[in-house]
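Hi Y.,

Following your request, here is the sequence exactly as I used it, all 248 residues.
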Amino acid sequence: MDLTSKPKTAQDRVFREPQSIGDFEFGEKVASVFDDMLDRSVPFYREMQRMIAEMATDFAADGTNIYDLGCSTGNTLIGLDAQIKKQVKFIGVDYSPEMLKRCEQNLTQAGFQHERELICADLNQGVRIENASMVLMVLTLQFVRPLYRDTLAQTIYRGLNENGAFILVEKVLGEDSVFNRLFIKYYYDLKKRHGYSELEIAQKREALENVLVPYKLLENREMLLRSGFRYCDVFFKWYNFCGMIALK
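Below is the corresponding structure, written out as tokens. Let me know if you'd prefer a different format.
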């Protein structure tokens, strides 16, 4: 089952009305509209998911585990399940019980074929990775506190088998402040084209300010190489969004 055949979720109206803004939380209110939020907030989201599944067919290995760290509602897992024909076990990790509940519902509804396990865990506190041919973090590392990111990258590296792949999709900062301002402007223009108001954009930005902390593309690359990965390349780039793949 691909993403186009998933049931349509409710429209994201989380920040539509004026409200007191606290830190962004992945609770039931967000989980119930998260797929719509992704489609309207992440440029080329479905194409990125297609690309991830395409690459996975080359790196998934029989008898290994595939981890999706920050699996949210299960979009990536569903895409991989449809494309990978090998005997692998999928392990989804998320710290939000509401997201994991919706993920399980979506996997069941999609007729998920592979063995699977969903784990509730805070990636800031570490995670167990073992016998992995692939580890994915799709728009997740940016929510891990910078203090813990190197340790998490090293854990992923150690848990991957030789020639295993780590796929990282992140919101990133421009390498220069001039470009960064422009990229953010282009991004907000995209959100407006997708139906978000100035108020919604401003309130969500405020909610994410202390929660989502992006790195520059080169900072992420240096972190991966520092953790031990042999190769690292960019497979997707759109202004302030980037997809990278690294090999052990």
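Residues 178 and 184 are 10 Å apart (CA to CA).

Thanks again,
Q.
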